[in-house]
């Protein structure tokens, strides 16, 4: 068992900073949140979302009356797109400054909430811009309060200290990790997710699978991050097919959302390594590539390469997907093929070559993975040393199906 391999002298952090309201009907807790903002004297806010999600989910039907009832004035930025950019953060920040926003509400999945986190920092550091923030030319210690209204079951950003944005001019997609951007409040209501499109249902759930695969196997992993990983994969393997077949099944949405949330807590504690560090260059170069799909393309190859270093952990947490593993190094090909088969059965059959990547692109991707700000930290936590050769091999193994 992997327990015997845990370094008991590794002092780790147990993190949980966000008050998250979870369950069907949780959106109604926005009334309590708005009341709390009023009591704190925060009567001007900026809402950060995209053109569709705040309406189609029904979230705004509850949020707007709550804000009005508490005399809270707002301005709304709806320009967030998948794989958000520093330009979008700057645009939203400008609107927030004009109204004198004292808090930020993000409505949506990872893109709007991550954008909201960037805005929350820049409303405090008014002489800085988003490029400076994501190039890490300064280290923020404060931000306006963030309220995360989550509408997908994948990112975990509603309960963690991470945010991501792209700097398109440099083809960078760095990540932030600051305590000041933990959302003060979060709402996880499965009823907001029944309208989630088929592909987003798949891709966001695979994002959660990757979060825990990495969090359970980093050099910072702990029994806590591994425990959460085990339950995350069990729940997703059970309920994702049901949600794909019956999108309005609230039980399936509930458990996928719960899996996503505990996956967010898992990697908030255990951190990440290869899959996210190698995916960020993919969607930085091709912003139209969904983050979760990029992760799915890489996952089998990443597991193949790290399995010999952490076979007990991966055999344990992947038991629901690839049963019967003994947790010995020689099973690397078996688990990688099993994960790929599971993804294919879900209809996620794309590999890097299907998205236009070729072997000629790999040197550039390797360079971006090793030079983009913040990704070096992720790679330093991998259970197998992240040399350029290993990174190249993972990209090459991800170009086409393994079998």
From TrEMBL:
CDD domains, sorted: Fe-ADH-like (cd08186)
Keywords from the UniProt entry: Oxidoreductase
Entry-linked SUPFAM superfamilies: Dehydroquinate synthase-like (SSF56796)
Classification via Gene3D superfamilies: 3.40.50.1970, Dehydroquinate synthase-like - alpha domain
InterPro entries: ADH_Fe/GldA, ADH_Fe_C, AdhA-like, Alcohol_dehydrogenase_Fe
Domain Alcohol dehydrogenase iron-type/glycerol dehydrogenase GldA: 21-190
Statement: the UniProt record of this protein carries the keyword Lipid metabolism: no
A molecular function (GO) term: alcohol dehydrogenase (NAD+) activity
Ranges where the Fe-containing alcohol dehydrogenase-like C-terminal domain occurs: 204-398
One Pfam family matching this protein: ADH_Fe_C
Family to which the UniProt record says this protein belongs: Belongs to the iron-containing alcohol dehydrogenase family.
Protein name (Swiss-Prot/TrEMBL): Alcohol dehydrogenase
Organism: Kosmotoga pacifica
Origin organism lineage: Bacteria, Thermotogati, Thermotogota, Thermotogae, Kosmotogales
């Amino acid at each position: 068992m992997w327990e015997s391999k845990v370094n008991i002298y590794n002092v780790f952090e147990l993190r949980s900073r966000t008050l998250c309201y979870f369950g069907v009907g949780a959106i109604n807790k926005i009334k309590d949140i708005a009341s709390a903002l009023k009591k704190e004297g925060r009567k001007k806010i900026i809402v950060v979302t995209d053109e569709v999600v705040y309406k189609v989910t029904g979230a705004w039907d509850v949020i707007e009356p709550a804000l009005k009832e508490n005399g809270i004035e707002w301005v709304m930025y709806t320009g967030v797109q998948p794989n958000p950019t520093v330009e979008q953060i700057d645009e939203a920040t400008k609107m927030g400054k004009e109204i004198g926003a004292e808090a930020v509400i993000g409505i949506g999945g990872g893109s709007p909430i991550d954008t909201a986190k960037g805005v929350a920092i820049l409303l405090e550091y008014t002489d800085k811009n988003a490029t400076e923030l994501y190039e890490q030319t300064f280290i923020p210690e404060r931000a306006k309060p963030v309220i995360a209204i989550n509408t997908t079951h994948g990112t975990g950003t509603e309960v963690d200290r991470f945010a991501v944005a792209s700097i398109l001019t440099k083809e960078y997609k760095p990540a932030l990790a600051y305590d000041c951007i933990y959302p003060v409040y979060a709402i996880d209501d499965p009823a907001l997710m029944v309208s989630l499109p088929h592909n987003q249902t798949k891709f966001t759930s695979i994002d959660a699978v990757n979060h825990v695969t990495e969090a359970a196997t980093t050099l910072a992993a702990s029994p806590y991050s591994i425990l959460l990983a085990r339950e995350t994969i069990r729940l997703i393997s059970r309920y994702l097919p049901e949600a794909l077949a019956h999108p309005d099944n609230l039980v399936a949405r509930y458990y996928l959302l719960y899996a996503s949330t505990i996956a967010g807590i898992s990697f908030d504690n255990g951190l990440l390594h290869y899959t996210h560090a190698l995916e960020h260059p993919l969607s930085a170069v091709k912003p139209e590539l969904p983050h979760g799909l990029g992760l799915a393309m890489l996952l089998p190859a990443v597991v193949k390469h790290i399995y010999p270093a952490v076979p007990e952990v991966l055999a344990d947490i992947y038991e629901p997907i690839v049963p019967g593993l003994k947790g010995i190094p020689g099973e690397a090909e078996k688990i990688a093929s099993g994960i790929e088969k599971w993804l294919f059965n879900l209809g996620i059959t794309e590999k890097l070559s299907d998205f236009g990547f070729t072997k000629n692109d790999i040197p550039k991707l390797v360079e971006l993975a090793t030079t983009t700000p913040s990704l070096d930290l992720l790679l330093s936590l991998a259970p197998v040393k992240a040399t350029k050769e290993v990174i190249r091999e993972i990209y090459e193994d991800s170009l086409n199906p393994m079998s």
